[in-house]
Design a protein that fits this description.
By secondary structure, the chain is an alpha/beta fold. Helix content is 41%, strand content 8%. The protein has two domains: 195 residues, D-Maltodextrin-Binding Protein, domain 2, CATH 3.40.190; 187 residues, Periplasmic binding protein-like II (D-Maltodextrin-Binding Protein, domain 2, 3-Layer(aba) Sandwich), CATH 3.40.190. β1, α2 and β2 form a beta-alpha-beta unit.
C-alpha cells in the first residue's frame, strides 16, 4: 500500500507540470564518485559498456551502480517513483543520477521537476542534437519547451515476414512485391485468407497488429479534461482481431508468451510479425535460431530460420517503443552525464558503429542515411538492407497524440478485449471492463460509465 500511495503522489506532482529552477551544474572536480543508473533491463547497460566504458571514458575512481527492476506489474516505475520522492534528502552516493523511460509513460517524467533540462542543466547544445530525429525530441520535451531526455535509437516499425511462407502464398519473397500485396488493410486481410488456405497463420496472436492501429489514432487516450477517449481506430483493431480469431488467421497467442516466441522459430507457420527496430535485431533474431547468438547476428545462414526473414513497410506506418536517458534532479554527476548522453546519442561515429555492430537503428539521420545508401546487408534478413526502409519510415513518425497514460491504457485495453477474442464476453462488456480497470488504475480519469 505504501508503494501505491507514494506512486500516486509522485504521479500527481508530475502531471501538474510544475516548473523548476535550473539546477546548477557542479564543476567536474566536485562530481560524485558513484553514478546510480535506474533501468528495467540490460539493453542500455550493454550500450553503455560497449560504447562508453569500453572506450575508457569513465573517469577514474567513479563506480557505476546499476539498479535494474523489471517492468512486470509496474515494478520499475514503482521503484523509480519511490526513490525519486526521497531524492532530495538522500545521501549523495544514493541519489539517482540517470534513469531510463519508455515512450508509453515518458510524459509522466518529462513534464515534472524530477528531470533536468539536457541543454541548460547538462550542457548538450543544439549543434550536438541537430541530427537526432525530431520525434525523439518531441516525446521528451516538456510543456515549457525544455528537452528532458535523449535516446540512442529511433524505432520506426515494419512488417517482418518469412520468405519461405511468402513464396508459398504469394509466389515471391521480394520485399517490393510482398509490400504491394500488403499495402493496405484490405489487401492484408486478403493475404491472410490465402495463407490460411495453405495452412499458415497470418499473425501469431491478438496483440501483434495493435501498435499499428494505436499509433494511427486521431487523438490521445486522455483529453485535456481527463476524459478517456477510445479512438475509432482502436475499435478497428478489435474488429480485425476478432475476425482473424474467428477465421483461424492467428494462433490466439499473446506477446512474449511461449507460443508467440515459438511461432517465430524454425518450425513456425506464421506469415509475419509487426516489429520495430529493436524487435528485429533482438527478439525476432533470438527466437528464430536453434543456436543462440549475440544481437549482431554473427551466425551462419542455415541456423533455424536465420536468413528466411525479410521486411516491408506493411499496411500502415507506425513506431513501437524506444528508451530515453534522463538526468535526475539533484544529481552530483552532470558532467559525466553530459559525456554519456553525448557519446551514446549525439556522436555520429558511435551511432553508426552501434548499427553496424548490432543492426539496431540509431538516432542519427546522417549516419543512418549513409548506411541506407550503402551496400549494408543483414544476413539474418537474407541480405536485405533494412536500414533503407527504416530510414524512409522514421521521418513519418508522429508523436502528437501521446499522453502520460498510454502504458496503462494500452495494457488494460488489450487485456479487457482478450476476453472478447476468447469468446468469454461480448464486445460491449469488454469495453465496460476496460473502463472499470482504467479508473481503478488512474482514479483521476473520467469514463463514459
Amino acid at each position: 500500500m505504501k508503494k501505491k500511495v507514494m506512486s500516486v503522489v509522485l504521479a500527481a506532482s508530475m502531471l501538474a507540470g510544475m516548473t523548476m529552477s535550473a539546477v546548477p551544474a557542479a564543476a567536474a572536480e566536485e562530481e560524485g564518485k558513484v553514478l546510480n543508473i535506474y533501468c528495467w533491463n540490460e539493453e542500455f547497460q550493454s550500450r553503455y559498456m560497449d560504447y562508453f566504458d569500453a572506450k575508457g571514458l569513465l573517469p577514474e575512481g567513479v563506480t557505476v551502480n546499476w539498479v535494474i527492476t523489471p517492468n512486470e506489474n509496474n515494478g520499475y516505475q514503482d521503484k523509480l517513483d519511490e526513490t525519486l520522492l526521497n531524492q532530495e534528502n538522500a545521501d549523495a552516493d544514493d541519489k539517482i543520477d540517470i534513469f531510463l523511460i519508455e515512450a508509453d509513460y515518458a510524459l509522466k517524467y518529462v513534464d515534472s521537476e524530477y528531470t533536468l533540462d539536457v541543454k541548460n542543466d547538462i550542457g548538450l547544445t543544439d549543434e550536438d542534437l541537430k541530427d537526432q530525429y525530431k520525434y525523439t525530441q518531441d516525446i521528451a520535451t516538456d510543456s515549457n519547451g525544455a528537452l528532458k531526455g535523449v535516446t540512442w535509437q529511433a524505432t520506426p516499425g515494419l512488417f517482418a515476414y518469412r520468405r519461405s511462407i511468402a513464396k508459398d502464398v504469394l509466389g515471391t519473397d521480394d520485399p517490393d512485391e510482398v509490400q504491394a500485396a500488403l499495402a493496405d488493410w484490405t489487401k492484408f486481410e486478403e493475404v491472410a485468407a490465402k495463407a490460411a488456405e495453405k495452412g499458415y497463420k497470418m499473425l501469431s496472436g491478438y496483440d501483434d497488429a495493435y501498435r499499428t492501429f494505436s499509433n494511427n489514432v486521431s487523438g490521445p487516450w486522455v483529453d485535456e479534461d481527463l476524459n478517456v477517449v477510445v479512438d475509432e481506430n482502436l475499435m478497428n483493431w478489435v474488429d480485425q482481431t476478432k475476425s482473424f480469431t474467428d477465421n483461424g488467421y492467428n494462433n490466439k497467442t499473446a506477446l512474449w508468451a511461449d507460443g508467440w516466441n515459438a511461432d517465430q522459430g524454425p518450425d513456425g507457420k506464421v506469415f509475419g510479425f509487426f516489429y520495430s527496430t529493436w524487435g528485429i535485431n533482438f527478439t525476432l533474431l533470438g527466437n528464430s535460431l536453434e543456436t543462440p547468438v549475440d544481437a549482431g547476428g554473427k551466425e551462419e545462414v542455415g541456423n533455424g530460420a536465420f536468413g528466411d526473414w525479410a521486411v516491408c513497410e506493411g499496411p500502415q506506418n507506425y513506431y513501437w517503443g524506444g528508451t530515453w536517458i534522463c538526468a535526475a534532479k539533484d544529481t552530483d554527476n552532470p558532467t559525466l552525464i553530459h559525456d554519456i548522453m553525448y557519446t551514446l546519442t549525439c556522436d555520429p561515429v558511435t551511432m553508426k558503429a552501434i548499427t553496424e555492430d548490432t543492426q539496431d537503428y540509431t538516432n542519427n539521420q546522417t549516419a543512418m542515411g549513409e548506411l541506407a545508401d550503402s551496400d549494408f546487408q543483414s544476413a539474418f534478413l537474407g541480405g536485405q538492407n533494412h536500414i533503407k526502409l527504416f530510414a524512409e519510415a522514421a521521418p513519418k513518425i508522429d508523436m502528437s497524440n501521446i499522453s502520460p497514460y498510454d502504458q496503462g491504457c494500452n495494457e488494460e485495453f488489450q487485456a479487457a478485449f482478450k476476453d472478447y477474442f476468447d469468446g468469454n464476453v461480448e464486445k460491449e462488456e469488454a469495453l465496460s471492463n476496460f473502463y472499470t480497470a482504467i479508473t481503478e488504475k488512474y482514479p483521476e480519469l473520467n469514463t463514459p460509465e
